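Q: I'm building a small set of examples for a reading group on sequence design. Run inverse folding on the following structure and report the sequence directly after it, with nothing in between.
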């Protein structure tokens, strides 16, 4: 009888440990600006991480209260966020970021400035109780037509991307916030957005090692606490499975060849590159089996049902023998190890604020091309935002452009948003007699945008052009400003030049 009882107890304990480990490897999201009861309950049951998005943040004070609510349930919870600065911001999703993004930092090419910007961003995250940042993007933007990386990359040079990735990791982690370097093994040479389909990189291993992998090696050398996998197919590494699901990519290459021993986090599993091909549950099992330690989910699916279904899928895979129990246990322990690091790092990291570092960086990143003698504006202009469809990573909630900053300097400034083939004529009609400031994003990728500028400059050669994407097209206009990103501070830096402030 005693034997039966102890056997049952041992079996029950093993079951509890398995269920707990399955919850521990999940990084789910939720809706709302306070934590729902189901999330708090799951934290008590073993959930160790929570992912925050723009929908969860109304102010820094509210965010601090939210993270305190989570920590009251589990003191060492990993609170993760997708805060790259620049175009991808969650802290300032409704106003635009106080920090320029990677491309602007790469344009300045001052690694100490990059470290300082990352440190201040990390300090603000830590102040709000966030301790894991899904940043920086270490992708080399080698394909100028890339629809999802672009200004999120430090640039098209491998060496530049490598040194700034390392500086960013160092700066962020010196503030007590774990860096999650992404998107391994490199998303820069893609022409497809993995939010929509599976991108493919067809280059040989020599090119991959020399170009894509170099910034990740630099991040590992700098001590990055986490690396995020990409849902991209790289046939030279694995012809059958995308990086997130590939044992060759995650275990043999990243762990084995590159010697990385930290946490491996998947990119969002509800992205269609995984969801439409393997399904989220099966994809999560395959990811853990391949070597991933944490499943990021919750950008789109953000309820208790997805947590339950992923937990159950992982438990069932262990019981069926498809997923080795020790692999799941190892993944869960890596999550706990990072949680332990964040609790000590947060205590150790105390530093003075540098609220202006982002604006200083944005001003330095500005590239000014004057094709004729330019006199700063004294009268309020008409700002025409030539607006492309935003990619999912950036989203369409965050304001961009120069209109708000110009209005501050030149009250009475008017603005409109335009898209499509008839944009040039529409802008001329809307602007009337006002000076036109045309704001574009990635002119080189959007023929309609280039055509609109042709029309504007033919009729109004004094038009000012502000490029807030990757400045690949030839500068034109009476004044051409390349901001290397669309953060709020980039718009302010441009507006200061236009108005002579």
């Amino acid at each position: 009888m005693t034997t039966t009882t102890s056997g049952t107890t041992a079996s029950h304990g093993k079951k509890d440990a398995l269920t707990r480990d399955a919850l521990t490897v999940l990084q789910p999201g939720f809706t709302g600006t306070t934590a729902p009861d189901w999330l708090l309950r799951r934290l008590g049951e073993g959930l160790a991480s929570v992912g925050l998005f723009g929908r969860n943040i109304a102010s820094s004070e509210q965010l601090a209260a939210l993270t305190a609510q989570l920590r009251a349930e589990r003191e060492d919870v990993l609170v993760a966020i997708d805060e790259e600065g620049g175009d991808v911001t969650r802290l300032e999703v409704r106003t635009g970021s106080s920090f320029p993004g990677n491309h602007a930092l790469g344009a300045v090419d001052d690694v100490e400035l990059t470290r300082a910007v990352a440190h201040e961003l990390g300090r603000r995250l830590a102040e709000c109780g966030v301790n894991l940042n899904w940043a920086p993007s270490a992708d080399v933007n080698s394909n100028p037509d890339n629809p999802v990386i672009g200004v999120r990359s430090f640039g098209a040079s491998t060496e530049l991307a490598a040194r700034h990735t390392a500086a960013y990791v160092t700066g962020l982690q010196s503030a007590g916030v774990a860096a999650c370097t992404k998107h391994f093994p490199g998303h820069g040479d893609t022409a497809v957005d993995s939010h929509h389909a599976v991108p493919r990189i067809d280059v040989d291993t020599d090119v991959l090692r020399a170009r894509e992998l170099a910034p990740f090696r630099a991040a590992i050398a700098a001590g990055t606490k986490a690396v995020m996998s990409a849902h991209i197919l790289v046939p030279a590494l694995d012809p059958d499975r995308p990086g997130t699901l590939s044992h060759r990519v995650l275990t043999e290459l990243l762990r084995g060849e590159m010697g990385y021993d930290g946490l491996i986090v998947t990119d969002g599993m509800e992205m269609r590159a995984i969801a439409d091909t393997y399904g989220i549950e099966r994809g999560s099992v395959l990811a853990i089996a391949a070597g991933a330690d944490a499943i990021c989910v919750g950008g789109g699916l953000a309820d208790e049902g997805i947590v339950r279904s992923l937990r159950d899928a992982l438990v069932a895979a262990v019981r069926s023998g498809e997923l080795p129990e020790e692999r799941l246990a190892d993944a869960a322990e890596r999550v706990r190890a990072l949680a332990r690091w964040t609790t000590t790092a947060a205590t150790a990291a105390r530093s003075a604020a540098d609220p202006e570092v982002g604006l200083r960086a944005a001003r330095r990143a500005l590239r000014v091309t004057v094709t004729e003698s330019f006199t700063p504006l004294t009268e309020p202009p008409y700002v025409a935002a030539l607006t492309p469809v935003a990619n999912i990573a950036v989203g369409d909630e965050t304001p961009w452009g120069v209109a708000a900053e110009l209005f501050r300097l030149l009250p009475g400034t008017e603005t409109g948003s335009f898209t499509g083939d008839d944009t040039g004529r529409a802008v001329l009609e809307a602007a009337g007699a006002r000076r036109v400031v045309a704001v574009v994003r990635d002119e080189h990728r959007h023929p309609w945008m280039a055509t609109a500028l042709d029309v504007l400059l033919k009729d109004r050669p004094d038009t000012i052009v502000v490029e807030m994407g990757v400045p690949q097209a030839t500068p034109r206009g009476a004044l051409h400003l390349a901001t290397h990103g669309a953060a709020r501070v980039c718009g302010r830096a441009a507006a200061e030049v236009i108005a002579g402030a």
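DSSP finds 18 helices and 14 strands in the chain.
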